[in-house]
């Protein structure tokens, strides 16, 4: 716009310039010495022609500029109209898409609700009479609400009634919409903090294991299709994620410190077994966990379910080589390997090892260790009804002999101790009595009872009562005398239907 005005101003000043040029030309003619061939009229016509040509071109440029502005305005208007059309179409498409999404979400919600209701319907519903028959009806309400935290708290607050709670949880789980999901929710506190190593954490871990065991009991009483509904793909994926989180923590377990009673290893194996998941561990890796849990009564059934039965001879050899003969005997009898491993030979070898490891310089400690080993062997024989193969009488007599020797050594030590007398004011020592030359042997005062009262208190090898749960499977039969004790009887039964 400014350029156009400048050109117009220059054109307007052309006439004045021509006049000035004419005046200068006239003055030049007045002073010229020679006659010029060119006349002023010609020069004036030339410049006027140039002026008209410039004005014509300027007018044409103005017309072109106006036409361009007009077209620009029209194009902008067309773009605005097209933009408005595009926005309108986008809004319409979004509204249509939102409508389809709402329909899809509603369909998914209905399908999920149908699936969950179907899953719940596949499990036999609890009647009011069933709930009234329970001594802990609160368990049903907690399962209905899928309240895993409340379930943990209820079990913790009622540990005195733990036996009845263990019996009734599998029944109460039938009231849950998603029993598998409820049990998985309860595992969140298993690794609360590595710094917390107290009874509260141990209680939480025992409860987590117990809930998985109770879910296994529920699954064992369902048919194949119902088990697949309860432990569906979503539940398995959640269980697999938990297993992947727990797996690295197993490397931190001290095998010797666990003493065959590791809750961490037991929980991992129980998680894999209950939910039938692929833990990512090969059989050899799972076998390494068995010595960490071999004192827990569920070990044999977990090994069977995980397909480790054929690998048991190797595990038994590991236990024997590490001096854990009692644990080896339990697995030998549980897996009916008595022809390959003699329980009597293992128990005698255990006693021999306990005597060889004793220090001659510390006789008291040696006797204590041998007595403890003898009691463990006696307990194992009684548990598995091996009295016909390994009589108890020689073992009990050996215990009497060792305890008698201990008592005599204690007497001798007490007699040999110097007796310091407190002097009195008259110079006579307090407690001084004339020596009686007609005395009886002092050792008769400390003579042990003529009959050893042998009681059935638990020995060193003992399974805590809180680790026991009511079973749903009959006793295991061995190729020995019938009714071989209860150490591994009444184990859990798992259906192969949900092994994947």
TrEMBL record:
Q: What's a GO biological-process term for it?
A: flower development
Q: Using the record for this protein, list the coiled-coil segments as residue ranges, or answer none.
A: 11-71
Entries under InterPro entries matching the protein: Frigida
Q: What keywords are annotated for this sequence in UniProt?
A: Coiled coil, Developmental protein, Differentiation, Flowering
Which family does the similarity line name? Belongs to the Frigida family.
This protein is called FRIGIDA-like protein
Query: What is the originating organism of this protein?
Result: Artemisia annua (Sweet wormwood)
């Amino acid at each position: 716009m400014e350029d156009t005005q400048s050109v117009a101003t220059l054109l307007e000043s052309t006439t004045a310039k021509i006049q000035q040029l004419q005046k200068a030309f006239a003055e030049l003619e007045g002073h010229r010495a020679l006659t010029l061939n060119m006349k002023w009229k010609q020069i004036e016509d030339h410049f006027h022609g140039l002026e008209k040509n410039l004005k014509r071109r300027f007018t044409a440029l103005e017309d072109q500029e106006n036409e361009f502005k007009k077209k620009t305005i029209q194009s902008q208007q067309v773009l605005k109209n097209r933009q408005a059309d595009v926005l309108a179409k986008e809004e319409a498409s979004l509204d249509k898409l939102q409508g389809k999404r709402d329909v899809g979400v509603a369909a998914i919600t209905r399908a999920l609700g149908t699936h969950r209701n179907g899953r719940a319907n596949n499990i036999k519903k609890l009647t009011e009479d069933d709930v009234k028959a329970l001594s802990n009806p609160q368990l049903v309400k907690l399962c209905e609400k899928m309240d895993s935290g409340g379930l943990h708290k209820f079990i913790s607050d009622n540990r005195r009634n733990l036996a009845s709670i263990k019996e009734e949880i599998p029944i109460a789980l039938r009231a849950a919409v998603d029993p598998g999901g409820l049990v998985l929710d309860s595992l969140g506190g298993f690794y609360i903090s590595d710094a917390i190593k107290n009874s509260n954490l141990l209680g939480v871990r025992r409860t987590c294991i117990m809930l998985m065991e109770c879910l296994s009991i529920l699954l064992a009483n369902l048919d194949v299709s119902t088990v697949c509904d309860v432990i569906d793909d979503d539940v398995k994926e959640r269980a697999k994620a938990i297993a992947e989180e727990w797996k690295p923590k197993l490397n931190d377990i001290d095998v010797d410190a666990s003493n065959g009673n590791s809750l961490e290893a037991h929980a991992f194996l129980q998680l894999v077994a209950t939910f039938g998941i692929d833990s990512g561990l090969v059989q050899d890796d799972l076998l390494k966990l068995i010595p960490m849990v071999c004192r827990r009564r569920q070990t044999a059934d977990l090994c069977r379910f995980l397909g480790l039965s054929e690998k048991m001879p190797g595990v038994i050899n590991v236990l024997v080589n590490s001096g854990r003969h009692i644990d080896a005997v339990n697995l030998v009898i549980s897996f009916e390997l008595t022809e390959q491993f003699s329980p009597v030979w293992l128990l005698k070898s255990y006693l021999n090892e306990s005597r060889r490891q004793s220090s001659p310089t510390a006789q008291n400690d040696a006797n204590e260790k041998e007595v403890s080993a003898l009691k463990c062997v006696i307990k194992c024989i009684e548990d598995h009804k091996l009295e016909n193969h390994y009589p108890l009488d020689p073992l009990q007599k050996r215990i009497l002999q060792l305890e008698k020797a201990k008592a005599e050594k204690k007497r001798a030590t007490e007699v040999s101790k110097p007796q310091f007398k407190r002097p009195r004011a008259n110079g006579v020592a307090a407690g001084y009595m004339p020596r009686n030359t007609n005395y009886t042997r002092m050792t008769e005062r400390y003579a042990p009872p003529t009959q050893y009262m042998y009681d059935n208190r638990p020995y060193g090898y003992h399974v805590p009562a809180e680790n026991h749960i009511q079973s749903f499977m009959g006793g295991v039969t061995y190729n020995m005398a019938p009714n071989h004790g209860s150490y591994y009887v009444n184990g859990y039964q798992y259906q192969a239907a949900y092994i994947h």
